[in-house]
């Protein structure tokens, strides 16, 4: 076992490339890894002169390994990761801007939302592999008509209370899952310039709404993901807010569908989740940047997107992929694509990383009734400012 660990360390931090080859790090497992390996094999069959080597790196240590390896000229040429680190990595010189290689035809390959999410300070930093957002899962045996507004969602509560259940379940103590209400009430974490906009009347209204869901028994108080899945599978939650990963948690024979998130009745605005984009990024120390970009393009073209959608059911950012017959028969993928129209890109500025924990602590205090939204949000501002002096 120690020998295997040593070998992995040498591979992950060294340069395991054939002459003229490209190395890509990823953290995929299961079907997502299978789909990536299939598209990589296609590249290698067509480009034997520029072999692509895939290296799986555990997600929990991925960012740290990358940040320590690249400045020393080690690590990969390319890697797949969420877009939320782009700001930090761009500022520290870890990643390479790629607009030099991007023409109009390639830019038109992807949805505008996905492309915008990968832009930072006037440059484009990656190509999208998969997009992720929250939607509404509905038990069709409990809900005849999926709720189009939050008022319609609340109207499900009386019948569910009779079943000792809830109209809605979601991980409400997590900012990512709270974001649909925050944006639906007109609030935000940061404005377009990266300045904090945490303590606003709109953000307070969103927190008050989340608290009301708990206080009125519409939603359980601060459940974790396993409890949310259990409630849905046991018929104790009529609806669930979650992402594409939730599909694998749904028990066999559970009747369900997905729909876009409802309109917030108080504002008339759609509940808008954060948009997450898994993308291929280029190391600033890539050995052959032109070859590396050619691999990026090939792994994100329409054929590769169709493979990922069919094999791993990834929500891809290539609209053309949804015309494929097999992909077209997957209604859930189309709902996730439709939800992209009402999403907010996760802020990429480095300061955003200091917001999550204080904000979630504040949510917990409000959901438990121990603080008012305004007071809790002011505390978040104070803590974030301390981190970013």
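^ Assign residues to that structure.
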């Amino acid at each position: 076992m120690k020998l295997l660990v040593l070998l992995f360390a040498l591979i992950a931090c060294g340069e395991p490339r054939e002459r003229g080859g490209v190395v890509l790090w990823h953290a995929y497992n299961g079907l997502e890894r299978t789909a990536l390996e299939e598209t990589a094999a296609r590249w290698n069959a067509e480009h034997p002169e520029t072999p692509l080597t895939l290296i799986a790196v555990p997600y929990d240590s991925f960012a740290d390994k990358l940040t320590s390896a690249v400045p020393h000229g080690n690590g990969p040429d390319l890697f797949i990761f969420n877009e939320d680190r782009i700001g930090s990595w761009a500022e520290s010189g870890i990643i390479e801007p790629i607009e030099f290689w991007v023409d109009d035809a390639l830019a038109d390959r992807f949805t505008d939302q996905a492309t915008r999410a990968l832009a930072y300070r006037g440059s484009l930093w990656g190509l999208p592999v998969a997009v992720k957002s929250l939607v509404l899962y509905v038990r069709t045996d409990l809900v005849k008509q999926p709720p189009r507004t939050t008022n319609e969602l609340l109207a499900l509560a009386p019948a569910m209370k009779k079943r000792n259940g809830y109209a809605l379940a979601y991980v409400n103590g997590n900012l990512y899952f709270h974001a649909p209400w925050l944006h639906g009430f007109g609030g935000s974490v940061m404005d377009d310039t990266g300045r904090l906009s945490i303590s606003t009347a709109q953000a307070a209204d969103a927190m008050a709404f989340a608290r009301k869901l708990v206080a009125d028994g519409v939603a359980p108080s601060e459940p974790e993901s396993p409890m949310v899945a259990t409630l849905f599978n046991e018929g104790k939650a009529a609806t669930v807010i979650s992402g594409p990963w939730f599909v694998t948690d749904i028990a066999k024979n559970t009747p369900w569908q997905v729909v876009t998130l409802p309109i917030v009745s108080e504002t008339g605005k759609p509940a808008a989740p954060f948009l997450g984009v898994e993308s291929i990024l280029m190391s600033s120390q890539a050995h052959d940047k032109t070859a590396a970009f050619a691999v990026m393009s090939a792994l994100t073209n329409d054929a590769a997107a169709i493979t990922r959608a069919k094999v791993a059911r990834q929500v891809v950012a290539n609209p053309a992929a949804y015309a494929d017959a097999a992909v077209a028969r997957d209604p859930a993928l189309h709902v996730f694509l439709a939800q992209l129209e009402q999403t907010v890109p996760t802020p990429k500025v480095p300061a955003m990383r200091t917001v999550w924990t204080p904000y979630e602590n504040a949510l917990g205090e409000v959901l438990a009734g121990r603080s008012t939204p305004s007071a809790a949000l002011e505390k978040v501002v104070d803590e974030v400012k301390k981190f970013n002096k």
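The longest helix spans residues 30-46.
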